[in-house]
Structures
1.
Amino acid sequence: MKCRRPRLTRWLGAAVLLLALACLGGCVTLKPPEEFFELTPESPANKAMQTRFFETGNERELLSAAAAVLQDLGFQVEDVEREIGLLKSVKERSAREYGQDIGRFMVGLVTFCYVRLPMDFHQKISAVLVARPVDRNGRRSEVRVTFYRVVWKSDGYFERTSIPPGEQRMEMIYDPLIYQQFFAKLSKAVFLEAFTL
Amino acid sequence: MRKTITGWTKLLLAGLLLAQGCVAPQPGPDLLAPTDAQMKLRSFQSRTFEVTDRKAAMRGVIAALQDLGFIIERANEPLGLVTAARFTEPDNLSVVEVSVTVRPQADGRMLVRANAIYNRSPVDDPKVYQNFFATLNRSLFITREE
C-alpha cells in the first residue's frame, strides 16, 4: 500500500502534463495578413509549374483552345473575361476514397462504434486560366493555369454527439503531373509546342 | 406613505423616459465626411503606375496576384476590377480577400487601389499594401521589359 501511492501520484502527474501539452498543441498562431502578400520560396517553382509559353500572338485562340481542352476534361466553363484573357471552369465529382472508408471502419471497430469519422464526400475542382501576350511584337503568349478544389465532408458522430455533414476545406493542387497533362493536351489543340523559360 | 412613493416612482419613470428621448443621436451634416484615418488609409491603398494601357495594368494585377498564390475570383474589364482570395495551407484557418480597381487618371497614368480583408475584417496596416504594390511593381516592370 505504501509504495502504491507514489506510483499513483506519478501517473496522475504524467496525465496532467499530457493534458497540458494537448492544450498547448491547440494554440495555433494565425498567419499575419502582410505575409499573404509576400512571395514564398515556393512561388517561383509553382509559377514554373503552372505556366507555359506558346509561339503565337493570338491569345484568343489559346483561350478558346483551353476552353475546349477543359471541356474535354469534364469541366464546365463558368466565366470568361475575353478582354483580359481570363477563363474559369469547374467540375464537381465525388471525393470518396477507399482509404478513408477503411480508416473509418477501423476506427469504428477499435472504439466499438463510438466514433464514426466524417469522410471526404464531395468535391468541386476549379481551374483558373489566364492567357496573355508577353512579347511586344505579338509573337509569344503565356498561359497560366491554377487548379484547386473545395472538399465537403460527410456526417459522422463522436459518442452520442453527431457531427453534421457539410464541413468544407480548400486545397490548392500542386501535383505537377496534372499540369503537364493539361499543357500537353493544350499544345495538341493549338498545334504548337508548349515550352518553359 | 405608500401613495407618495408610487407618485415619486411615476415621476422618476417619466423623467427617465424624457431623458432617454433627449439623448437620441442626431446625424450631423458631417456624417459622410471623410475622417483623417480614412484619408490615410486611402493613400496606403492607392498607387499610381507609369502604365498607360489599362488592360496591361489589369493583366499585371492578375499576374501579381497569381504569383502571390491568390485565386482570381472575378475580373471585369469595363470596371477595371479584379477580386481574389488566398487561404492558409493546409489548415484553412485564415483567409485574405482582396479587391483591386484600376482607373486611368487625367494624365493617362493608372491609379491602382487595393482593399484587403483579413478574416472578415478590413486591413488597415500599411505594410500589407506596401508588400502588394512591391509585387505589382515587379510584375508590371517584367511585363514592360518583355
2.
Amino acid sequence: MYSYIARRLAVAVPTILVLIIISFILMHSAPGGPFNSERPLPPQVLANIEAKYGLDQPLWKQIVTYVWNVVVHFDFGPSFQYKDRTVNDVIAQGFPVTLTYGFWSFIIAVGVGVSLGIAAALRHNSWLDYLAVGFTIGAQALPNFVMGPILILVFTLWLGLLPGGGWNGGQWNYVIMPVIALSTSYMASIARITRSSMLEVMNSGFIRTARAKGLPMSRIVLRHALKPALLPTLSYLGPAFVGMVTGSVVVDIYFSTGGIGQYFVNSAFNRDYSVIMGITILVGVLTIFFNLVVDILYAWIDPKIRY
Amino acid sequence: MKFKTTLMATTAAVMVMGAGFAYADAHATHPETGEVLASDQTFTYRVLDESPSIDPGLIEDVSGSEVGRDLFEGLMNQDEEGNLVPGVATGYEISDDGMTFTFTLRDNAKWSNGDPVTANDFVYAWRRAADPELASPYSWFLSLMSIEGVDDVLAGDAPLDTLGVSAPDDHTFVVQLTTPLPYFPQMTTHATTFPVHQATVEAHGSEWTRPENIVSNGAYVLTEHVPQERMVRERNEMYWDNDNTIIDKVVSLVINDENVALTRYLAGELDRTEVPTGQYPRLSEEYPDEALSFPRLCSYYYNVNVREDGPAWAQDQRVRQALSLAVNRDVIVENVLAGGQFPAYTFTPETTAGFNVPDVPIASMSQDERNAMAVELMAEAGYGPDNPITTEILYNTSEGHRQIAIAISQMWKQTLGMEVTIANMEWQTFLEARGNGDFDISRAGWCGDYNEASTFLDLLDSGSGYNDAGYANAEVDEILAAAKTAGSDAERAEIYTRVEQIAAEEVPIIPIYHYTGVYMLDDDVANWPVNNVEQNWYSKNLYKVAN
C-alpha cells in the first residue's frame, strides 16, 4: 500500500510538469497578450512592460524560470492583470472563499444525494422513487446559470430574506445561495448514481442470501449493501470534490463571492498568464491528490482491491 | 412605569452619545440648497469588474479612475458641468509661448497622515508614472500631454529628472511642454497625474495601495478592499475641504452580471447601477425618477479596412459612402439599443467642448433619400445585385455588438444587395485581428480621454496607433498637426470641422451612434453630474436627501 502511494506520488511530479509545459505553450500560442488593449500601447511602453514581466525572453527560458520559481520559492509570480497583487495573493484570497462554499456544497450534495438515492432504490417504483427521479432529472436539467438569477430574484427581491450577493467574510446568510446553486446538480448526479448501484446490489446474490437467512432489512442495507453500492459514487466524488472546492465561475459571477472560480475564466480572457498557470497548477494538484485519496478509500472499502 | 421611562431616556441618551457625530445631525440640511439630508450618508454602487489597479500611476480603467478621484486629488478638479475648478492647485499661469504652465498649490492640502501636500509630491508622481521601471500601461497619457522629454524617459533613454516638471518651492509646480497645448489644464483631472506619497510608496512597494498601508490626499481614505468583492472608502479627516463633504462612506461592489446588479438595485442593496441593454424603455416607465440617460463623450463606429491589401471594393470611396448611407441609425438607436443614444453622422460627439458639428449632407437627408443615393453610388461603382459585394463584419463577442451587426448586415443586404456575414471573436483575438488589419469591416468604440475634439480626430492621423481603418490622408495629417499649435479656439474648431468634413466625404469609418450613460440612480442621491459628458464624478460632491 505504502509503496503504491509512493509510486503514485512519483508519477504525479512528471504529470504536473507536463501539465505546466502544455498549458504554458497553449496559453502563449493564443492570439493577443496580457497587455493588448483597445488603445495599443506605444512600442517603448510595451517593451518596458514585457521586460518587467520577462515576456521578452524565449519561451523555453520563461518556462524554466517559471518552474524554478514555483518549485524552489513557491512563487507563482505577479498577476499581469492586477498590478498590485501576486498570484499567491489571488489564490490566498479567493481559495478560502471557494473552499468554504465548496465544502458545504459537498457535504449537502453527498448527504442529501446519497440518502435520496438509497431511499429511492429501497422503495423502487414507489411514489418516493418517482419523486426522487423526477427531482434529480429536473435538477440536472436546470443549469446553475439559470438557477443563480432565479434564487436572487426569489430570496432577495421577492422575499427579502438573503443578501443578493457578496461574501462578507463568509457570514452564513451570504453562503446559502452559492451553496444551493453549486450543490444541486452534484446532488442530483450523486442521487442517480447511488440509486442505480443500490438497485443493482439489492438484486444481487449475496443480498438474496442475507434475506433468506432472515436478517432484518436495516442490517442488510447498512452492513452488506451500502459499502459495495457506494463504490461507483465514490469514484465520482473525487473529481466532484475538486470541482466544488475550486469553485464555479457561474457561482462567482452571479453571487459576487470573490472566489477563485471566476479567475479561471477571466484570466484566460485577459491573458493573465501567471494567474492562468497558478490556478491550473492548483486544480491539477488537487485533482491528482483527491484521485489518490479515492483510490485509497476504494481499497479500504473493497477488500478485493489490492494495490 | 417609572423604570421604563428612565430606561427609555437613558437609551436615547446613550444612542445620541454612542452614535456620535453621524447621528447628532440626523436632520442636518444642505448648506446651500436647504434640503433635509438623510442620516445615513453611505453611497453604494456597482462596478462591473475589479480594477487592475488603484495606484494613480497605474490606473487604466474607468472604475479605477472613479476610485482614484475619491482617494486622491490632482491639480484641478471638474465641477458638475465638467468645468475646471481648483483641486490641490488654486490656479495656474500660462507663459506667453503657451508652453510653460505654473500651478500654485494651496497651503492647506494634507495627506491622510497629516503631511502637507507639496509640489515635490507631484514631481515625484509624474516622474514615477513615466518611469520605465513602473511600466505603467497608461504612461502614454503623459506623452499625450506633450511634457518635455517624456518620450526619451519612457523609452529609458534619459534619466527621470529630465522630465519637464519642477518644484521651485513647496507650493509652485511648473510643467514645461513641447507644444502649446491649450487643453493641458483639463488633462490634470486625469488620474495618471494625481500625486502619490513618496515615503509610503517607497516603504511598501507594490503593496502601498492596500488599506493598511495607503496614504492619500483626496476626500476619502481606503478602509476596506476585498478584491473581486468590495471596496470601502471613508472620509479623510485631513482633507482640506472635509467640512464641505457630505457623503461619509462610499462602497463599490463588484457585480459581473448586469441583470443581477439590477435585481440587487431593485432590492435596495445599491444606489446606482447600469441599465442592461434594451431595458431602458421599461425601466424609465416604471421608475421615471430613477432611470437616467444622458449624453457621453463616446462614439460607436465601424472601421472600413482601406489598407491597400484590404478588400478591393473598400478602395472605392463611392462604395464606402454607400455603406454609410445605407445604415439606418434611427433603427439602431431606437429599436436595438433603446437607451436614448444619439445617431452619429460625425465621429466627434456633438457634446464635445469647442466642437461645432459640421454640416455633413448625410445628416439632413431622410433614410429613403440616403438609401436611394446609396444604391446609385453602388451602381456607379459597378456593384449591385448582379455583382454583389461579399463581406464580413467583425466584432468582439457581446450580445449588444451582435444585435447591431445583425441589423446592419440586414440593411446592407436589403438596400445594397450585398452578401454580408457576421463574425465574432473573443476580445484579445479580436484586438489582434483588428490591429493587424485582418478584417473587412470591424466594430470599434472610443471614449474621449479629455473633453476636446482631438481626442477623437487624432485617430484619423495616419501615424496614430489607434487608426485601425488604416486611413491615410496627407491633408488630415497636416491640419491635425496645425491644430496643436493653433492660436485660438476658433481656429482649432475650424480645423476639427474640416477634418470631419473630409472624413464624411471619404468614409474610412462609419459613425453609428454616440453613447449615453444609462443608469438607475436612487432618487435620494443628489447632485449627480448628469451634465458632465466625461462622467467624472466625485463622491465628495454628492449627497443623500432624506425621503
